[in-house]
Amino acid sequence: MSLLCELNAEQLKAFHSEAIREYNAFLDSGISINMARGRPAPEQLDISNALIDLSVQEMGVKAEDGTDCRNYGLLCGIPECRRLFGEMMGVAAENVIVGGSSSLNLMYDYIAQCCSHGTCGNTPWSKLNGCKFIAVVPGYDRHFAIAEHFGLEMVSVKMTPQGPDMDAVEALVKDPAVKGMFCVPKYSNPDGITYSPQTVERIAAMKTAAPDFRVIWDEAYVMHDLYEEKDVLANVFELAQRYGTEDRFFIVASTSKISFAGAGLAALAASEKNIKEIRARLALQVICYDKINQLRHARLFASLEDIRVQMKKHAALLRPKFDAVLSVLHEQLDGLGIASFNSPKGGYFISLDVNTGSAKRVGQLCKDCGLVLTGVGATFPYGIDPEDANIRIAPSCPSVSELNVAARILCASVKIAACEALLQSACCGR
Amino acid sequence: MSLLCELNAEQLKAFHSEAIREYNAFLDSGISINMARGRPAPEQLDISNALIDLSVQEMGVKAEDGTDCRNYGLLCGIPECRRLFGEMMGVAAENVIVGGSSSLNLMYDYIAQCCSHGTCGNTPWSKLNGCKFIAVVPGYDRHFAIAEHFGLEMVSVKMTPQGPDMDAVEALVKDPAVKGMFCVPKYSNPDGITYSPQTVERIAAMKTAAPDFRVIWDEAYVMHDLYEEKDVLANVFELAQRYGTEDRFFIVASTSKISFAGAGLAALAASEKNIKEIRARLALQVICYDKINQLRHARLFASLEDIRVQMKKHAALLRPKFDAVLSVLHEQLDGLGIASFNSPKGGYFISLDVNTGSAKRVGQLCKDCGLVLTGVGATFPYGIDPEDANIRIAPSCPSVSELNVAARILCASVKIAACEALLQSACCGR
């Protein structure tokens, strides 16, 4: 197949007509497919039904330290879960607080605390004259929404195959108003990129002008490999300890995509100093989190190895879905020069970049056909993709046959939008 | 028995010696009893074990609207739980958001939101030059701790047998800096007082200078009757609707002392306008709360009647404990003029007022004997009881025989402290 931009006007019109024909084959056929969010499929949730089935008889009600999990107590979580999440995040159990079911809530609360009360004795961010936060783009819309809510001005840094553009990050952190950054360091959302060891080390080592610079290190997909060949993430906390920057890191993980998306466990990890500060605030906020759910998880996952076994079951269900989408994308778009996309080794997303200025049009065409994508622009701060090029694909929830249809609609839409842009520019060029 | 203050010096010394003898009988006997917090006893927790035992087979995984409770979704909670809590709090289901397991967290988050972002278009409280909050005293230390954390200056208003001193409240709310108040309107913590219908109506009807005055209406013990003869709380939300003040109320309840203290459900109720605002913030904070735990509760408690049946089981376990403490208090302290206490018809506490200036001494004497009470002063803002007189007794957790011992230690300590004060003042009078 030739590059689309090299076709002459007639060839382009023919290509356009063919794309419309492909698209129209799906239009008005009552399709309703949602690829907007990283929702596990029902079959994935079934894997964890044993969590629900545990009875008092089987499970007991006491944590290993004797605490009755039905009652108040253990603000930081039961010891077995602190240890499990410590293993997952590469920190000691005493550096972990196991929260409710939402790691988003842990991040929200932490940013809220930095804004209203400050951290480690520094001025609360809300009392300063404008704070900035680094947004790695494309990135996770819910991270950006928290920063926006608290009035942290986002400054974009581009993602590279090795992680955030560290030259740009190191330049930005010389400004004391730059207070932190959000990272999804393994199988990033949406690019599926794992930060290289060098990138991780540079984030740990860099000098920041702000003494209270905070990296929100969201290990959302740290266990979420799709293939035997896995990405490996360097241990940021160990590196931070080596560079004396361990107060910089606020690490979170959750079992949202390990056990139940709506009823899993979330945890945070931080330095001793930060844990002490967070714990003091938490004591005002809750008496304790749900330890019965913690105990259920501890019974199902005695060690990280049990989670690895569980993740292979997830991968077996997810792999065919990623493969289905990727094979259609390759078949339909390779060689046209109108789109590029990643082939992630884990995580929940495929990131598709289309020609500048056509992502919104693609989103609209898909929507008209009954296919819902993540809102175009959502992967950028304030919902504005300056190049209107990035589309996030979440293939986890629909079935393989639905994904096959969805990917074809998407590809036809990408072709149509590309043709429209080329025809328009040819037209304007006249 | 004569009033202690009417005894002559010799009689007083004899009484003092006898009290010390009573006290010493317990000293050094290895007693370790905790009456500090309103913790349910293990037998109370056993009542709800069926919650844990529900299997996927028995329970299903779908809410009545078809939502898979294992997955993301339903930010405001499953319909059956919104309805249940609506019934409990006397509001429509659409005015309810079911949260995680902690009503404290819902209150904390709401105050945090009023401070950082304001409510209903009003200036954020943190941007104003000092805000005040009414603290009904004695009251709940965790309420006061939230206000203190967010720099809301607390102004105390005394509790009366009908609820807060409403003349004082109505005078205070003429100040626009006074932004709200915390209420535990049924079986108040620690007095066990239920606000009279007139008090509830005055709170709903009063004119406040601050347009964003908020009443945090904590229905912590709304289902928690101990006896057949129950207090009845007026429906504040209905009254508020009548007076057009429904935006004033932020109502919370939880099943912490209905099902599991550490793993129950919490919910908030508010006006349509407030719900809309809270929901928008919540959408940034969590994707959803744990709906599996919601479904468990919905299966166990299909209606408020099921909760009433459950509460009778709790009452049967709690009543002998309250009775044990109260009968010792009556036997040991009646007629001495050195203490007064309530006989609550529900809730979790007995409030004991001792002679001015002696509560701390009583707390210390108890502690030396191995009996831990709620930190003296904790029932007042900033932990300072200006009269050093109030002691909160939480009889739920220890056994009846432990409570018998605990109450005797407490009474001996009250007597000793009273004698010391009288002997000292006689001494100073010389």
The major pleated sheet of chain A works out as:
8 strands, mixed
Any idea what the radius of gyration of chain A is?
23 Å
The chain pair forming the largest interface, with residue counts per chain, is: A-B, 54 and 54 residues
Oligomer: homodimer
Spans of chain A with pLDDT under 50 lasting ≥5 residues? none
Order of helical and strand elements of chain A:
HEHHHHEHEHEEHEHEHEEHHHEEHEEH
Shape of chain A: globular
SSE inventory with pairings:
2 copies of one chain form a homodimer.
Chain A: H1 9-24, E1 33-35, H2 42-46, H3 49-53, H4 56-59, H5 79-89, E2 96-98, H6 103-116, E3 132-137, H7 141-149, E4 153-160, E5 163-164, H8 166-172, E6 178-183, H9 197-205, E7 214-218, H10 236-243, E8 249-254, E9 266-269, H11 272-285, H12 291-300, H13 304-333, E10 339-341, E11 350-354, H14 359-368, E12 371-373, E13 390-393, H15 400-429
Parallel strand pairs in A: 1-12, 3-4, 3-6, 6-7, 7-8
Antiparallel strand pairs in A: 2-9, 4-5, 8-9, 10-11, 11-13
Description:
With 430 residues, the first copy, chain A, is an alpha/beta fold. Chain A starts with 8 loop residues before the first helix and ends with a helix. In chain A, helix 10 links the parallel strand 7 and strand 8 (249-254). Chain A is globular and about 75 Å long. The first copy, chain A, has helices spanning 9-24, 42-46, 49-53, 56-59, 79-89, 103-116, 141-149, 166-172, 197-205, 236-243, 272-285, 291-300, 304-333, 359-368, 400-429; strands at residues 33-35, 96-98, 132-137, 153-160, 163-164, 178-183, 214-218, 249-254, 266-269, 339-341, 350-354, 371-373, 390-393. Helices cover 42% and strands 13% of the residues of chain A. In chain A, helix 1 (9-24) packs antiparallel against helix 15 (400-429), helix 13 (304-333) crosses helix 15 and helix 14 crosses helix 15 (400-429). Chain A has an eight-stranded mixed beta sheet with strand order 2-9-8-7-6-3-4-5, with helices on both faces. A three-stranded antiparallel beta sheet of chain A has the order 10-11-13, with helices on one face. Chain A contains 15 helices and 13 strands. The interface between A and B is large, with 54 and 54 residues.
